[in-house]
Amino acid sequence: MQFKSLEIFLAVLKYGSFSHAAQHLHTVQSNITNHIKKLENELNCEIVTRQTPIQATSAGQDLLRYAEQIVRLHHQAKAHFLSDDQQAFAVKMGSMETAAAMHLPALFQYIFQHNSRFQLDLHTAPTRELIDLVENWKIDCAFVAHSDPIENLFSMHVWTEKLVLVSSKQSEIELNAKSLHNSRFIAFKQGCSYRRVIELFLQSHHVPASQIIEMGSLDGIINCVLLSMGCAILPERYILQSPYCDQLKIFELDEPLAFSKTYLIANQPKTWNKSLQMLVKFIEQYSNEFYGKNKSLEP
C-alpha cells in the first residue's frame, strides 16, 4: 500500500470526483483511477462509490480512518526532522553511577537553564554494559570511564577523575602485598571501570583479585567500607564530598591508575537526531566552561 495512493484516496473523497482530484493534484485522471483500483485490489473490496459525488463505502470509511492517521503521522514525522527546535522524544542517556551522583545534577541544571523543555531519560550501569547499549542502539549516548576513546564510536573527553583507595579509619590496611592479600575490596559488578582499576592495582602488588565483594550502589559500597568489610577505589571528589569523609582513610594511588578519563560516547554524528545534536553541544559547552581545556577536576 503506497502512501501516494492514500493521499489520492483522501483527495477523491475531498473533491468528490476523480477529475477534480486530478486537477488539484496536478495529474491525469487515469493516474487517480489506477491508484484507487490498486488500493481496492490490495484490500479486496470497493472503497468508493462510482457515482457523483463520490463517497466512501463502509469499507472505505474504515480505510479513511487509517489513511487520515497515516497522513497526519507522515506530516508530523517530516516536521520533526526538518524543524530546528522540535523534541518529540526524550534522549536516552546512560551513565556510570558515580558520574550520575557527582556530575549529572549540575549538568542537568545547566541544560534546563538553556532549554527548560529538554527531555532526558537516564539509565545507570557499568561502563562495559553502557558501551554495549550504545553500540546496539538501545541508548543514544553514555558517560563511560575509559583510558582511550572507544573504537568506532564518537568519544568526547568531558572530565578526568582522580581516584583514591579508601578504607575505614578502624582498618589496619597498608599498601603492601601482605596486607592487601588479606584485604577485601568492595566494587560494582564486572564491567565497571573502577573495578578494573582495583584488579590492576592488586596485580601491580602481585596480589590476586580474589576477594572482591560486589555491591549494586555507591551507598552500598561506602557503607561496607565504613563497617570495615573492605576497602574501595573511588573518585576522590566523591569521597571528599561525602558526609562520611571524616570516618575514612584515603590512600593516594600511583599513576596511571590514579586518573580516570570520562568520555561521552555515542554512535557516529551522521546518525544523530536533532535532540542528540543539541545535547552533545550542551555537554561540550558545560565541560569547557566548568572543567577547562584539560578536563581535570580539583577536589
Automatic annotation (TrEMBL):
Question: The organism's lineage?
Answer: Bacteria, Pseudomonadati, Pseudomonadota, Gammaproteobacteria, Moraxellales
Q: Which Gene3D superfamilies match?
A: 3.40.190.290, Winged helix-like DNA-binding domain superfamily/Winged helix DNA-binding domain (1.10.10.10)
Species of origin reads: Acinetobacter gerneri DSM 14967 = CIP 107464 = MTCC 9824
Q: Where is the HTH lysR-type domain?
A: 1-57
Pfam families per the UniProt record, alphabetical: HTH_1, LysR_substrate
Q: Which InterPro entries match?
A: LysR_HTH_N, LysR_subst-bd, WH-like_DNA-bd_sf, WH_DNA-bd_sf
Name the keywords, alphabetized. DNA-binding, Transcription, Transcription regulation
Record protein name field:
HTH lysR-type domain-containing protein
Q: Name one GO molecular function term.
A: transcription cis-regulatory region binding
PROSITE patterns recorded: HTH_LYSR
The entry's family comment says: Belongs to the LysR transcriptional regulatory family.
